[in-house]
Amino acid sequence: MTDGPNIAVLGAGVVGMTVAKLLQDENRKFNITIIADSFKENTTSAVAAGIFRPGTSFCGPTAEITKKWINNSWYYWQDILKSSEAPQAGLMSFSSYIFSKERYTVTRNHLIEDLVPIYRAVDKNELKICGEGWKYGSYFSTIKIGCERYLPWVERQFLDKGGKIITSTVESFTSLPEKYDLVFNCTGLGAKLLCNDHHLVPIRGQVIKVKAPWLKTAIYGDYDTYIIPGFDGIATLGGVRQYDSYNMKICKYDSAAILERCCEMLPALKKAEIVAHKVGLRPHRVPVRVEPETVNGVKVVHCYGHGGYGVTCAPGTAMDAVRMGLDLLKTNVKTKL
Ligand SMILES: Cc1cc2nc3c(=O)[nH]c(=O)nc-3n(C[C@H](O)[C@H](O)[C@H](O)COP(=O)(O)OP(=O)(O)OC[C@H]3O[C@@H](n4cnc5c(N)ncnc54)[C@H](O)[C@@H]3O)c2cc1C
Fold first, then answer.
1. CB of 318 closer than 6 A to ligand 1?
2. CATH fold of 6-336, please?
3. What is the per-residue pLDDT across 164-190, written as a single tens digit (0 to 9) for each?
């Protein structure tokens, strides 16, 4: 223990772990404890394909803040990607096609077109590279953040630097195991109960992990169909978006539909070995909640509700949350900082 402030981070998904990392980078005197009931592969974050691609509906409190979150996130991930730690941290760069038979607009993305190195319309030949009948398409460069690697990577560093971890379910901000000067609420969908937040809704997702080491490019099609390459030759096939569904069981009909749609785009997948089926509930909220609040005397900064884009945007939102937390701390514990 140092004589610095005691800080709790609730949640060990991509948001909580990134908040904890930024806090430690900010000041080594902070005594930081991560409290969560699930870690690493048991979080929603570990189910995600982890492609950096915010949906165009991704939404902070204003358009400016949304864009700032996305840009800051991109540069955070780029810093890790350019370091020697990139593979251990789960970062890789690749390119992606997005095709549509119906809508030109789905192939555009105003949130990243000016950010990623390449974002362009495809030519006629490219419309024929997978499946048939595509009318519209874009090609862009982006990155993947594999949370199956990123979460353990952050956890190792966090513990090495003196961070503490407690496995526990939090019932309320006032019943934490110790007294904390500041609490970050990064509980994803768990915030629904913790904050009685009716605006937070699960959007159920299901994916199939297959062995496809030959796949080097991501491909998106209509109806939420996607094929994303990954580490160790394991690709993610998706997907579904089921609003307000809490069903954590694998649905065989969803699996069949995902396989059919993906194999139609890329017939080579028919022979790919299936490694796993996974389900996750995206914590959807409009807008994503990043704000301070004092709850029964406890100083809390909320950072949750990232929906289908939490891996992409965790760092940008975490940076704002940490800044808000430091402002809160300064008002009361000036001498400790
Ligand atoms: C199929 C699928 C594909 C996806 N693909 C992508 C993608 O390609 N790109 C992208 O950017 N995003 C993607 N997402 C979205 C992304 O996974 C989420 O936005 C992100 O994981 C949210 O992170 P989080 O840290 O807020 O939540 P979580 O990962 O759910 O972590 C929440 C943490 O809080 C803890 N917790 C909750 N309540 C309590 C409590 N009461 N007490 C103690 N601990 C608690 C949990 O144990 C956990 O540790 C996808 C999601 C799914 C389901």
1. no
2. Rossmann fold (3.40.50)
3. 999 999 999 999 999 999 999 999 999
